[in-house]
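Example record

One chain of 174 residues, shown exactly as stored in the release files.
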Amino acid sequence: MKIFNIRIISTTIIMLIYSFLAKGQTISGTTFYKMSNEPFPLVNILLLDSINSNILSTTKSDFDGNFKFEHIKNGHYNLKTTDVAYGDSTIPIIVNGDIKIKIIILKENCIYNKSINNKICPKCHRKDKTIPIIYGLIIGHEKKNSKKKRYYIGGCQITDCDPNWFCIRDNFKF
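Predicted structure tokens for this chain:
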């Protein structure tokens, strides 16, 4: 009878330990806009394997920017945020217990980022007719009798997404 009780007790202890270990960890956090530090709602968040980038789980931040992954084993992962307007960003994380993360969504994807170092006009495919766009208050001016413009004045209002080049031939900002 004592051997039977010892087996039941030891089996129960092993099952309790296994159920505790099988529970896994929780990754939770909040997504925020960089500029205002306000919560960023409805961001897609993917939990990726750090070795081969396989998607292990997905979730979406709620209207207050909160998200949660549950039952995660200890290990190395990547958290990837995706948003149509703000693009993708990935951060590595190491899970070794429950963790809480604050994810900052950097800035809006700008269509002009592709042309920062490429002055070839997308319309005429020439670079000899493009000039840089200068923003802000321009002190001084080009010589009055100079026929060739060296820059295009973009104005004083500057945003996070402004064109970099101006094509003189097509009168086109890109």
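Notes: The mean pLDDT is 81.
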